Amino acid sequence: MSPVLTSCASCVSSGVAAGPRLNNNQLYKFSYTTEVLIDKARGSKEGSAGYRISSDVDVNLVWRDPSSKDDQLIKLAMSNLRIEPVSQTSEKKNILHGATTESVLGKTKLAALTKPFLLHLKNGKVRAKAFYSYWEEPTTIKNLKRGLASLLQVQLNTGKVVENDVSGRCTVEYKAVKGQVTRTKILETCNTAETGFTTHSKVLGVSSKASSVTVFTLEDGFIRSAVAEETHTLAVNVRKSTAAKVVSRQTLTLVGKEAGPVEAAGKDVAGVVKSVDTKLAAVGIVAEKVKSQCKGCPSLFEHWQAEKKQLEPASLSKATAPRSFLALIQSIRKASKDEILKVLKSADKASLPQVVDAVTSSQTTASLDAMLEFLNFTDAKGLVLQERFLYACGFASHPNERMLEALLDISKGKIGSTDIKESVVIIMGALVHKLCQKGGCNLPTVVKVKKMILDGPKSTNEESEVQMYLLALKNSLLLEAIPIFTKYAESEVGAYCTIALTALQRYDVSLMTSEVKQTVNRVYHQNRRIYEKNVRAAAADVILSSNPSYMEIKNLLLSIGNLPHEMNKYMLSKIQDIIRFQMPASKVLRQAMKDMISHNYDRFAKVGSSSAYSGFMAQSADVSSTYSLDILYSGSGILRRSNMNIYGASNGAMLHGLQVAIEAQGLESLIAATPDEGEEDLESFAGMSALLFDVQLRPVTFFKGYSDLMSKMFSMTGEPMNVVKGLILLSDHSEVIQLQSGLKANAEFQGGLAIDISGGMEISLWYRESKTSVNNRGALVVTGNITVDMDFLRTGVEVSFETEAALDFITTVQFSEYPFLVCMQMDKTTFPVRYWKSIKSRKGRKMLIPGSEFPLHQENSNMCKKVFDSSW
């Protein structure tokens, strides 16, 4: 049930005070302090940053409506202002040491802050426009006055109500006990003009907690004291210790009373205000937006000149690269289109791709306009920069409709490279998904793109184009795409089947209808046609991950023993992995395996080299990271499918961090072997597909066709082929926190990743050995900043952590005899983790995470010994 909002209209009719009442001809003298403290979440006051503003405040009644005692116009005047640091620091570190209030504020601002202002209280409440000051005053000064004025707003009875104050229009809960009222502001309900943005992914995002409580004590119908405390804490989900908080406190204390000015005569508030000072205006109680000005800050071009060395290819595996990348994004977000173009045009060939990453990731109107003007999509030679732009769009933290519209316009124009044409459409699918997540599914451009990709597969007979549209739909995760995937799961083209089945696996289990399940089961059991092994394996993955029924599991178990040799072994390994790792299907699997017809030695003693294994990469209170390695061979010992996945889970959400799949087919003729059933007429092919942070990228082909295969075999250097390389803005959170004191805190949390994923496949006919490799190199930096900028004084804190890592997955197969020898290795190098807090100086710690070889099944360990023993 929604809370009942109460006011005190009944108080008025009964004569009971609705809010605080001032006595006529009396001057109330208060002491007032407001302070702001910024620190890391678990910090101590000694290591924090902040300052306190103190003053004397005179309050008196200017006018009261003769017909209502609770309709009052109040005058407030601040005097004797002091500014000092909150925490105890040495004279050397105290930037305010020896400074006077006038030297800090400036003569003009000090005069403005001490100038009286008016507040119209009606039944203890402030209406939106009922705050009177001077338009020409600096915004920060008006906001400080609004913060003080908001402390006079109080309701004397218990209940919930919507109020206007400096924070915006908020729901507030009052609890009144004799002589004391507690006001709790429900901050998440506040409507303010300034909105920020955040990353769509909960795993990569930022969590925040906020509270605001004011305790009033009353004496003789008016406020004796008001003590307010407001706290905002922000933390990075994947590492909650990377957190910062801002604490704002206000204290208003009555120190005495004396004879005051006579109440003014007048019929209404407007007339009385004019009689006090004709320049006074209804400027409104809600805080105004403060335009921050950076004095002495370098231009974007100057910033780029300072950072460019860190963004050269040789530096991309170091944490300095993403740190410079994040800093450059902050500069780009403040820059004009012309300033951005100047940097793009001045960058050399080696660093230009990284500049494209930074400019696109900035996601401002100016940065997008600059990129669209800079890139020429009709030029096939510009493929690298064009693809970096497209991938940065796909990974965008908070894309808007205009970015999608830009890609739609590109797709309709002339594109010089077929690969880029495919990437444009595939990435549009990812943008549709992100915009739909934010409630933008009915935006005009989203509707157009949805229609284009939903109609796409049936609009063409070109195999590559059908795959392009299916991959775009896989990224979009549109509900309307499920019937399309269900249809293509039973296609005669193996590539269509694989894309459709892997796409279905990405949907929530609740969307797997009986029709979808029947289709997937038909594919696995080959009820209508013969399918390739990798298609059947993909179908099995969907069945096992979609809350399978007892009969589905039983039929799947009964199929083992009737499958091609290597698929028998793959399915056994998959089932054992599910049970060992306690995946959701493990419970029904155990039940079905109690049946000795389904589970017997004959079925579960099948030999082969294919395997499936899952394990933990890392576990902590904040996040758990798991990996899975599935590998399927043909009966001849040549790789058919290799699939590596890395998942991250945090805050009850799951992120598919990485998937690298290598597929090969039609290679049996190389070693005079017989193809498996359903694979007799397959064209020679090997390729690699990557999914990164829930975004499917354009697949890469190693070779296609026999002639291409032979030319590649004789020219193989053993060097892996690059799949994705660049800088990615992983997390992006920007927020303006309007404090009740009138101060504003700006919170910026960003995570940057430098990544290099490559893969390769080598075949040696002489040694009858094949080797596939997936190499992952990365450096991650996450920074969080909270600053309070008052024009005349700025304070802030930065929390940060960074790491560098490498992860290699290598599979070596010796197929000179059967069963062939297979060795899988998954190695993680030793990598540093550094984290620190910075206020005026940087304090940090560093630790080394030792390298390791991730565990796989014992059978693999035994075979690796044989492979490497036979190598000598």
UniProtKB/TrEMBL annotation:
It holds the Pfam family Vitellogenin_N. This is Vitellogenin domain-containing protein. Residues 22-658 form the Vitellogenin domain. Keywords: Disulfide bond, Endoplasmic reticulum, Lipid transport, Signal, Transport. Signal peptide: none annotated. InterPro entries: Lipid_transp_b-sht_shell, Lipovitellin_superhlx_dom, MTP_lip-bd, MTTP, Vitellinogen_b-sht_N, Vitellogenin_N. The keyword Magnesium does not apply. GO terms for cellular component: basolateral plasma membrane; endoplasmic reticulum; Golgi apparatus. GO terms for biological process: cholesterol homeostasis; lipoprotein metabolic process. It comes from the Eukaryota. The keyword Transport applies. GO terms for molecular function: lipid binding; lipid transfer activity; phospholipid transporter activity.
